């Protein structure tokens, strides 16, 4: 048995040439340089989470109020009662002067009369009503001073307003996705070489040039639509057609059209050609071949990716409101600017719940129709 050769995994492994080994080493070196350089550029610091954990707690749950904060809030609430009474007194004084036909006093005279009437109005109000007003404003000022996202705002009026904005956001995603799907399927037919050969038949030079121009032109147009983020497109459409959800619908439709057009065109080029060849050999027309050989093979993928993009568009439509494209994002941006983080937390929870429900529903649809 001395002549028997033992076969091992190492002996079966192909031997790399020196050039291949050098190329592999250079590739590993370039990858290491890119990773190290990008690590330094983005400033990754894992210890930042530990060092600044108190900032996160304060941002989420608010800061601890001091005795000075409580006294200052009480003073502000009491002053606000006086301010409201002064405004009411000013309006009442203008009405009285208008009814009597007298000229409105100027400067300090007007100020003194307004102050006197404000004191009179305050004295007429019951003590319990004044204390209830001060206490209500005092609690609101304390909440504003404390900050934080929790507990969320749960008043019926706020939930109704945010619910309307959420429905508008979902409607934007529905129409943005629908328009994109309707336009992406015919565009994908022109971007795929096998279906383009059916639409533009002939082997002459003119036909070949026409197919090449159509293929390259549609591909580059899809790249253009896909290359811009929805937020950038929304900024452009808001500047062109104005504020509102229609700008958001167009922004979502353009970006989703670019993505679906590329995905569907690549799926069409990867279909089984035997069905197309059989229909062509039997004398079927171009549209019959597309309807009975191409679309049945790609429709499961079209449905799957369309549902996936719809889920993504619901999240994207929320952000589009930050640039004035409507939806719940418009309300969220307004509350963030006003430091009303509890209202923001309510809207975030509503968006998360709705996206989760839509994800579940889309999963059921995919499992049923695909």
UniProtKB/TrEMBL annotation:
The chain crosses the membrane at residues 21-42, 172-200, 231-254, 289-308, 315-333, 345-362. Its main location: membrane. InterPro entries: MetI-like, MetI-like_sf, PhnE/PtxC. Keywords: Cell membrane, Membrane, Transmembrane, Transmembrane helix, Transport. It holds the Pfam family BPD_transp_1. Belongs to the binding-protein-dependent transport system permease family. This is Abc transporter permease phne/ptxc. It comes from Desulfoluna butyratoxydans.
């Amino acid at each position: 048995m001395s002549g028997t050769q033992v076969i091992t995994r190492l002996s079966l492994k192909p031997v790399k040439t020196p050039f291949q080994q050098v190329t592999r080493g250079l590739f590993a070196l370039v990858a290491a340089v890119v990773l190290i350089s990008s690590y330094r550029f983005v400033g990754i610091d894992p210890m930042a989470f530990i060092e600044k954990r108190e900032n996160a707690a304060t941002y989420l749950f608010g800061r601890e109020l001091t005795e000075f904060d409580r006294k200052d809030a009480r003073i502000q609430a009491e002053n606000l009662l006086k301010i409201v009474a002064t405004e009411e007194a000013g309006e009442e004084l203008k009405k009285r002067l208008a009814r009597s036909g007298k000229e409105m006093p100027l400067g300090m005279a007007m100020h003194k009369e307004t102050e006197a009437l404000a004191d009179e109005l305050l004295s007429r109000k019951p003590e319990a009503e004044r204390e209830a007003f001060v206490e209500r404003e005092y609690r609101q000022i304390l909440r504003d001073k404390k900050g934080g996202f929790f507990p969320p705002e749960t008043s019926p009026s706020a939930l109704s307003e945010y619910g309307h904005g959420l429905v508008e956001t979902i409607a934007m995603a529905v129409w943005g996705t629908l328009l994109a799907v309707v336009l992406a399927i015919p565009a994908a037919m022109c971007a795929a070489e096998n279906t383009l050969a059916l639409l533009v038949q002939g082997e002459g030079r003119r036909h070949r040039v026409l197919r090449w121009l159509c293929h390259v032109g549609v591909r580059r147009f899809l790249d253009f639509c896909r290359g811009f983020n929805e937020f950038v497109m929304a900024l452009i459409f808001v500047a062109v057609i104005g504020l509102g959800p229609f700008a958001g619908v167009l922004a979502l439709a353009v970006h989703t059209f670019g993505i679906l057009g590329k995905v569907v065109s690549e799926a069409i080029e990867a279909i089984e050609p035997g069905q197309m060849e059989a229909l062509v050999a039997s004398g079927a027309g171009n549209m019959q071949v597309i309807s009975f050989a191409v679309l049945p093979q790609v429709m499961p993928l079209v449905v799957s990716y369309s549902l996936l993009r719809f889920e993504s568009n619901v999240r994207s439509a929320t952000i589009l409101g930050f640039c004035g494209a409507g939806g719940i994002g418009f309300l969220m941006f307004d509350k963030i600017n006003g430091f009303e983080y509890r209202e923001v937390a309510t809207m975030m929870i509503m968006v998360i719940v709705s996206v989760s429900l839509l994800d579940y529903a889309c999963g059921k649809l995919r499992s049923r129709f695909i």
